[in-house]
Amino acid sequence: MTENHATDRRPTDSRPAGPRATDSRPAADSRPADLPPAAPRSAAVKDVPPGSSPWQLARRELRRRPAVRVSLCVVLLFVLMAVGAPWLGSLGGWSPNEFDKSAIDPYLAGQPLGSFGGIGSAHWLGVEPVTGRDLFARVVAGAQVSLLIAFAATAIVVAVGTAAGIAAGFFGGRVDAVLSRLMDLTMSFPSLIFMIAMLSVAKDVNRIVLMTAVIGLFGWPGVARVVRGQTLSLKHREYVDAARVAGAGSWRILTRDVLPGVAGPVIAYTTLLIPGMISTEAALSYLGVGVRPPTPSWGQMIAESVAYYETDPVYFVIPSVFLFLAVLAFTLLGDALRDILDPRGGRT
C-alpha cells in the first residue's frame, strides 16, 4: 500500500503556466486600449515651479510674449516721459509755450523753415506753424496732461466701481437692486454728449480736475458689473462659508476673502480702461471742450494741426503717432493681463 501511494505522487510543476515568465513587454502596453494617450505637458507648464502664485505666473507669462514686452517698455517710456516732462522739456532748450519767431518764415504765412516741419538740432521734432513753439516740448507736456487725466479718471472709475460691485454682489437684496438700477441709469446716459454739455457750461474751473471728474462719473458701471459677477461667485465658496461660521464679520470677509479674489479681473480691466480714457480726453480736447490753450494736449494739438495738414503734415503726424503708440501699448498690455489674470472672462 505504501509503495503504490508513493508511486502515484507526481512532482508539482512550480513554473508559471504560459509565456508570462518570459514576457518582457513594457508596463505601458498594459493600459486599456480605449483610453486616450496622455497629453504631453507644454513648455510653459514644465517651467512653472510648484506653488507659484498667480503674480509669479503672470510675470513668467509676460516674459514669454515679445509683443507684451515691447508694449510694456513703451508704457514705461510714456510714464517716465509724463513724470519727467518739465526736465525733458528744458533738455531740448525750449518751454512748451515759448515762441521762436526765427524758426518760421513770415513771408510764407508762418510756415516752419527747413524740411520736415523744421526738424533739426534746435528743434528735435520741428515747430508749430505761425507760433514757432517747439513740438518736442509740447508733446512731452501733452503726455503729462493726457496721462494724468487718464490715470486719475481710471482710479476714480476703479475705486467707485469696485466698491459698488462688491457691495451689490455680497449683500444682495435691496442693496443689489438699488445699485444695479443706478448702474443701468448711468449707462443709459449718452455720456459723450453729456460730457460736452458739462464741459461747455463750466467756465472758470480747473479743466483737468473737471475732465477727470466728468470722465470718472460715467465709467464706473462697467467695472461694477464685472466685480458684482465675480463677488456673486465668490461669496458661496467654502472658505467664505468657513470664515462666516468662525464668526468673521462682513468687513473682514470682504477685505480678506472677497477682495483678493476679484483683484485679478479688476487689474486686467483697469489696464484696458486706460487707453479708452486717453482716447476720451483726446476726443474732448479735439472738440474744443477739453484742456484749453495754452496748456498742451495731444487731442488739442491734433485739432490745431488739421488746418496745416497739407502745408505741414509733420505737425499733424507727430502728436497722432504719440497718441497711437500710447493707446496701442496699453491695449496690448491689457489684453495680455486679461488672458492671464482672468482667462474665463477673456474667452467670453
Task: Indicate the topology.
Layout: H1 2-8, H2 43-47, H3 54-64, H4 66-83, H5 85-91, E1 104-105, E2 111-112, H6 135-171, H7 173-188, H8 191-201, H9 207-234, H10 238-245, H11 250-286, H12 298-305, H13 313-341, H14 343-347
Antiparallel strand pairs: 1-2
Helix pairs in contact: 3-13, 4-6, 4-13, 5-6, 6-7, 6-9, 6-11, 7-9, 8-9, 9-11, 10-11, 11-12, 11-13, 12-13
Percent of sequence in beta strands: under 5%
- Counting H and I runs of at least 4 residues, what is the number of helices? 14
Q: How far apart, in Å, are the first and last alpha carbons?
A: 90 Å
**Which overall shape is indicated by the principal axes computed on the Cα atoms?**
elongated
Largest sheet: 2 strands, antiparallel
Helical content class: 55-70%
Order of helices and strands: HHHHHEEHHHHHHHHH
Biggest sheet strand order reads 1-2
Kindly name the structural category.
mainly alpha
Oligomer: single chain
- How many β strands by DSSP? 2
pLDDT < 50 runs, ≥5 residues: 1-46
Summed over residues and divided by their number, the pLDDT gives a mean of 80
Radius of gyration: 33 Å
